[in-house]
TrEMBL record:
The lineage of its organism: Bacteria, Bacillati, Bacillota, Clostridia, Eubacteriales. It comes from Candidatus Hydrogenisulfobacillus filiaventi. This is Sulfur reduction protein DsrE. It comes from the Bacteria. SUPFAM superfamilies: DsrEFH-like (SSF75169). InterPro entries: DsrEFH-like (IPR027396), Sulphur_relay_DsrE/F-like (IPR003787).
């Protein structure tokens, strides 16, 4: 409707491949927010950046043991729904990664940008 503002959700992903059982939830929730016509942005920092390494999502099972869905399914759904993926610049170095090592992201942010996004968001959720 005219005049309505779009609600902004910011998901800060700090956990990576070391906790596969935690990996799908932020993508699932961000996808849900986007499908509710909200602006959904995910920022990957600390070891969360490891989830974006090329080839990881296709191999990372949500349940550590057994045959379960792989993370790539949740990433594809988020992308299709219009979720933005941003990576924290210092976390690239922390994980010995470069942008070329990652799947497609929508940008790189630092501390100032992340703080500004959190300040402007209606909802901030951290994983």
């Amino acid at each position: 409707m005219a005049g309505e503002t779009v609600k902004k959700y910011l998901y800060i992903v700090t956990t990576g491949v070391e906790a596969p059982e935690r990996s799908a939830s932020p993508f699932f929730l961000a996808t849900t927010a986007a499908l509710m016509e909200a602006e959904a942005t995910m920022v990957f920092t600390i070891t969360g950046t490891s989830l974006l390494k090329k080839g990881v999502a296709e191999q990372l099972h949500i349940k550590p043991r057994g045959e379960s869905a792989v993370l790539a399914t949740f990433i594809a759904q988020a992308r299709e729904a219009g979720v933005r993926f941003l990576v924290c610049a210092p976390s690239l170095d922390l994980n010995d990664l470069t942008l070329e090592d990652l799947i497609e992201v929508d940008g790189v942010v630092g501390g100032t940008a992340l703080n500004q996004m959190a300040d402007e968001a209606d909802v901030v959720i951290t994983f």
